[in-house]
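Exam review. A common question shows you a sequence with its structure tokens and asks you to describe the fold in words. Practice with the pair below. Do the first one on your own.
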Amino acid sequence: MAREWTEATARNLCAVTGALLVLCGAVIAGRVAAYKNLWRAPDLGVWANITLWICLAAGILFAMDRGLPREEKWAARLYWMRRLLLVTIFATIGVLVYLK
């Protein structure tokens, strides 16, 4: 049984999208700081890298989902946040690949 779409669902998904945006921004900032020798983050191991890539993949799938409505206020905000998330994830992947 599928759940009904409500504004509370859209608000919660906006919070999750915001958390993913903060994660991507932190990864970009940390990698750029390490590239410029300003600050180097401690190595968290292989599991942190695997978790990061899983979060990025899940974020891409969520950002490209076309089945979410956008008629209400929070649903429209979620639509634009998902577009921003997609751009930010691709920027994060670019930074991870090119700034080793």
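Now try the second one, then compare your answer with the model answer below.
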Amino acid sequence: MQAFHVRYRNTQGTLMRILNAASRRGLDLTSVQAEPDERDYQVALLLDVNQKQVGQLFREWYSIADVMDVRLSAGLHGLELDANWVGPHPPRTAGANGSSARAALA
């Protein structure tokens, strides 16, 4: 597992272009965490990649006009994951028992 840290300006579509570079290669997005970083933004991606894919991702991310910096760290150490996260979460509008989601399906 490799943790990528991409700093970018938050303009329209920049985050989607960053994520699309990984999904286009069929890589599983194990973890994605985007947050403000001073005046800009940073997204941390946890991906299982080989050396060739690392080079391809760096090249594609640096070709995006609003990407300012890309860094790589090995494994989970470079990415802090929430210990309480156990899987997909229900939509925010759903109650604790998911009643809102069930009502929408009816």
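Model answer, second protein: The longest strand covers residues 40-47. The chain has three helices and four strands. Full marks require stating both points clearly.
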